[in-house]
Design goal:
Helix content of chain C: 25-40%
Order of helices and strands of chain C: EHEEH
Oligomer: heterotrimer
Largest sheet of chain C: 3 strands, antiparallel
Number of strands of chain B: 13
Shape of chain B: globular
CATH topology of chain C: TATA-Binding Protein
CATH architecture of the domain at 92-304 in chain B: Alpha-Beta Barrel
CATH topology of the domain at 92-304 in chain B: TIM Barrel
Number of strands of chain C: 3
Chains: A alpha+beta, B alpha/beta, C alpha+beta
Chain lengths: 156, 504, 78
């Protein structure tokens, strides 16, 4: 399998399931793509073990369910977009690794230039971990309590 | 023409050329390096560059050396200095400080990206205390130049605080000694002679919105208390006349205006340009509808595809060029910024066309409640209920705002060197991204340039410019060079020694 | 939106961290009861007593949070 495949589409449930071979992308890429989608989809990751047991490959399954109603075409578009995101994240990891030195130097200069002082010694540490998709520490999710209010709380 | 027909990988002489990117433009290729040099080459010339098949005296060699494309001939020290000069913005902090004075507004523009409220909601005004704390932060920037931009809602609705900020900032600048300027983004409907006298006396630059002729402007920019178009055009003409009466050069000093292009305007490119020329504007910034705020909600009726916008843009830009040939001095601002970067060593520091982008380290947005955002666009995202781009409040220290993890993440994400498509793009040395746009349209700070409409827009405008440059005659080159000439609007700079206090 | 009072979700142990799941369960404790047990390669999470008055899909949101928490924890661990 050269890329991800659409495993199933359930328009009634607004859900599409993708499958991709374990090993096609690093796990961080799968997480990274999932992260991009969790503000507009319910994302459930699963693993379909290979015939020869857990250590012999297998497939990752990505279940995406729209937070709003989605048609079959929209679900297929969504799965395509997820595939694009996987590829983009994978490529970006390679580019960042290849250009790591210049990226760090420019970023450090830009922040130091703006701050006008010395930077913490661990300033760039968290950018070295390959999990740069998480370099958005504010998080995408709106606090749960804000999003889900008990109907009763709205009553006078 | 496929590049694989031109270049055979097995014959590439890897150490001959400085690393370059290329793109087909017409029958030739444009080639650029990371220093921002460019050259148009025929397919055979591109092959010879890749294979190192050129020698001194054959003409091509000299052109390649001139464009810093022959590695052995690059003066590394001089070019390092040049790179540093062109990236001066890496050495200082935010220059643009956008103050949202209130969320109140008397217009109901269909595409407004701000979270506007009715004129009675004075509770959404910025207070004097918040304003002073924000100005204190402004003066901690390491940037030698500072522009405080008043925005809203309609900022004139919070007039007392606007005046207070001007006076307070001028006082602070007596010690700080920065190059200080003010600008006001207003729909002009609340302007009166007293306010105008004060703004002109305090050298506040005025910017407004003008979407085109009366029918188009009033259809989109709803003003229930009057005729929005008549109001804005009337004030623009009056203010421009005041500048003229003061002896200021009308080519430089006038009310700046921006159109926002909506679906009804797509076929009206000629009318829009003509309207700008008619009110005396020398520049038009053809601005696409944003994916933020009301604009996002009204996208179905006002929106369009990027291809539709780019067709509009090309028509309008060609018409502007034609007007220039007829002696009318008017430019398209976006093209002019790009041309300045391509044709000169200037760095206009336009925040959407630099790497890293301007979020946090180029500009900051201050909300009425004291929240601080990465930019104007960052607070637009917040107005949609998402505080992703809030980097702190006026109670924080400047150092914290500049060094926290959120700021760092935005700087890194906004760097072209981190992007798969950008690193191989011929337009990389002149282009940039906006992390807020990436996030809003594609869900992450980084986005995906391959299917980003931001990237598509920039690429197509660069393509249009490159195609024009590739075949430009002397007359067109003269026009383009005029568009790139920078003249400092020093009248708007505050005099550091003049601290006569205006009546508050 | 009314929703079922009980549900079982299976979260693969190679993809979700137990602490992250527990953290998500704590976040939603006011709106449902959660029981997490190992079941082969999965964690089986039994969700019961789901508050029918809550707007939104508690189980699906819980899964999103479990995933998000896992990503955050994996990042910190590296």
């Amino acid at each position: 399998m050269a890329q991800h495949t659409v495993e199933s589409v359930d328009a009634a449930a607004h859900r599409v399931t993708l499958a991709l071979e374990v090993g096609l992308y690093p796990i961080e890429v799968l997480y990274g793509a999932a992260y991009v989608f969790i503000d507009r989809c319910f994302v459930l990751l699963d693993k379909d073990e290979g015939k020869d047991g857990p250590s012999k490959g297998g497939r990752y399954l990505v279940h995406l369910r729209g937070k709003t109603e989605l048609s079959k075409k929209e679900l297929l578009d969504l799965s395509g977009e997820f595939g694009n995101e996987l590829l983009s994240q994978a490529l970006r990891r390679k580019v960042v690794k290849a250009n790591q030195k210049i990226i760090e130097e420019i970023t450090t200069q830009a922040i130091a230039g703006a701050a006008g002082g010395t930077l913490p010694t661990d300033f760039l540490d968290s950018s070295d971990d390959g999990m740069d998709f998480l370099d958005d520490p504010l998080g995408i999710a709106v606090p749960w309590e804000d999003k889900f209010k008990k109907k009763s709380a709205d009553q006078p | 023409m496929q590049v694989s027909d031109v270049i055979s990988l097995g014959r590439v002489k890897a150490d001959f050329a400085l690393p370059f990117n290329h793109r087909a433009i017409g029958s030739r290729y444009v080639v650029s390096n990371d220093l921002g040099d460019h050259l148009f080459l025929t397919p055979d010339e591109l092959r010879r560059l890749a294979e190192g098949d050129t020698v001194p005296g054959d003409g091509l060699y000299e052109r390649l050396v001139q464009a810093n494309l022959v590695a052995a001939k690059v003066d590394v020290k001089a070019q390092a200095e040049r790179w540093k000069r062109k990236h001066q913005y890496l050495f200082y902090g935010p220059t643009l400080h956008a103050f949202v004075l209130t969320h109140r507004c008397n217009h109901g523009c269909q595409y407004c990206h701000s979270s506007i409220v009715g004129m009675d909601r004075t509770d959404t005004d910025m207070s004097i205390e918040t304003a002073e704390r924000a100005v204190d932060l402004v003066f901690q920037t390491t940037s030698p130049g500072v522009n405080i931009e008043f925005q809203g809602g309609e900022p004139l609705a919070n007039w007392d605080v606007l005046q207070h900020i001007v006076e307070y900032a001028r006082q602070k600048n007596a010690l700080a000694g920065k190059t200080l300027s003010f600008s006001l983004v207003t729909n002009l409907s609340l302007m009166d002679d007293d306010k105008l006298d004060y703004l002109i006396d305090r050298k506040v630059q005025l910017c407004t919105s003008l979407d085109g002729p009366e029918d188009l402007h009033n259809k989109i920019r709803i003003y229930k208390d009057g005729n929005a178009h008549a109001s804005v055009v009337g004030w623009m003409k009056k203010i421009n006349q005041r500048y003229k009466d003061m002896g200021l050069d009308p080519n430089l000093y006038r009310v700046e205006a921006l159109p926002t292009v909506t679906r009804p305007g797509l076929t009206r490119w000629k009318d829009i340009v003509d309207q700008y020329v008619e009110v005396g504007c020398k520049a038009i910034f053809l601005r696409k509808l944003d994916p933020f705020g009301f604009a996002a909600r009204s996208y179905k009726t006002l929106g369009y595809t990027m291809d539709e916008f780019l067709d509009f843009y090309a028509n309008a830009a060609e018409y502007i060029l034609e007007l220039n040939k007829q002696g009318v001095q008017v430019m398209e601002r976006h093209a002019a910024l790009m041309l300045a970067k391509i044709l000169t060593d200037q760095e206009p520091n336009y925040l959407d066309l630099r790497s890293p982008g301007g979020a946090c380290i180029g500009q900051i947005g201050y909300a009425p409640d004291g929240s601080i955002y990465s930019s104007d666009e960052g607070r637009f995202v917040a107005s949609m209920g998402d505080e992703m781009f809030k980097i702190g409040t006026v109670a924080d220290t400047y150092h914290h705002l500049m060094t926290n993890a959120h700021t760092r993440a935005m700087v890194m994400a906004g760097l072209n060197d981190t992007q798969p498509d950008c690193v191989t793009c011929v337009y990389k040395p002149w282009c940039g991204q906006q992390v807020e746009y990436n996030y809003k349209t594609q869900g992450s700070l980084q986005g995906r340039m391959r299917d980003s409409v931001w990237c598509k827009k920039h690429k197509r405008v660069f393509d249009w410019l490159m195609a024009r440059l590739e075949r430009a005659d002397a007359e067109e080159m003269k026009i383009f060079e005029r568009w790139t000439s920078t003249r400092v609007l020093d009248h708007y700079l505050q005099d550091r020694s003049a601290l006569d206090t205006a009546a508050m | 939106m009314s929703q079922a009072q009980t549900a079982v979700v299976r979260l693969h142990r190679a993809l979700y961290m137990q602490q992250a799941i527990k953290e998500a369960a704590n976040t939603f404790a006011d709106f449902a009861s959660f029981k997490i047990v190992r079941d082969g390669e999965h964690y089986a999470v039994s969700v019961s007593d789901i508050d029918g008055e809550v707007e939104g899909d508690v189980v699906a949101e819980f899964c999103n949070f479990a995933l998000h928490n896992t990503m955050q924890r994996k990042k910190k661990r590296i």
